[in-house]
């Protein structure tokens, strides 16, 4: 996983009242991250700082990219927009100084992506909250976007519209985008979220849901020349190596499951003889290490 943004020791106060204290967390590329916490815990404040709209009193955000393109969708969408989606997005693009042809083509792509081609020329006054929410996300994505920030995107949406938005978020992630959003409870987006940042007592606790436990294999083989294995294995992977009466060596290694096939191939190329291959879990691995 590549790091997109690293928040280090972020502190924020409003008029002498501390909101966040010495908060650190990491945002990985191509993930969906949910910021959760009670009303007034500082979710919007944190999102605005990530978006660069307000500055922390202390600490810094370090990005792995030189210029990180951020799209921000605020919590409160304008209640009445008299334009059609196409007109509104054209205005927003022009305000940002986008070239006409690029803007029109981007709007076209976004209308298709969000399944709103049919209503592109309909006045938005009659749009549902979910449809307006989509338009707000589209305007944040008019420029190429690496990181999309959504403040309470699900608030006030019925279940069907929430599911619809979940699908949209999944599609955006598949296209390579990283999305950070705030919501009141983790349950709402549990199918799509990779990482939860929980704000509690001015601190942030990070839980990575997408990290799958690493599985290992124990492999026992015999090899004629012990120097061969030095290039193939990390020192920590070699559990035991014992000389045999025939001049060969018996070697026991613990290797990550996804690297096992490749190692087997390399060992066979060196004329090693495979004696045993058994899966072990992380816990067993540590017990055997102790
Ligand atoms: N511009 C501001 N000036 C002073 N206080 C502010 C300002 N913005 C936010 N606050 C205060 O900071 C605290 C955190 O606000 P914030 O909006 O970040 O919380 P939140 O978790 O997003 O809340 P909610 O779930 O209700 O949207 C609140 O007590 C709020 O009143």
From TrEMBL:
<feature type="domain" description="ABC transporter">
    <location>
        <begin position="5"/>
        <end position="226"/>
    </location>
</feature>
<keyword id="KW-0547">Nucleotide-binding</keyword>
<dbReference type="InterPro" id="IPR027417">
    <property type="entry name" value="P-loop_NTPase"/>
</dbReference>
<keyword id="KW-0067">ATP-binding</keyword>
<dbReference type="InterPro" id="IPR051782">
    <property type="entry name" value="ABC_Transporter_VariousFunc"/>
</dbReference>
<protein>
    <submittedName>
        <fullName>ABC transporter ATP-binding protein</fullName>
    </submittedName>
</protein>
<dbReference type="InterPro" id="IPR003593">
    <property type="entry name" value="AAA+_ATPase"/>
</dbReference>
<dbReference type="GO" id="GO:0005524">
    <property type="term" value="F:ATP binding"/>
</dbReference>
<keyword id="KW-0813">Transport</keyword>
<dbReference type="GO" id="GO:0016887">
    <property type="term" value="F:ATP hydrolysis activity"/>
</dbReference>
<dbReference type="Pfam" id="PF00005">
    <property type="entry name" value="ABC_tran"/>
</dbReference>
<dbReference type="InterPro" id="IPR003439">
    <property type="entry name" value="ABC_transporter-like_ATP-bd"/>
</dbReference>
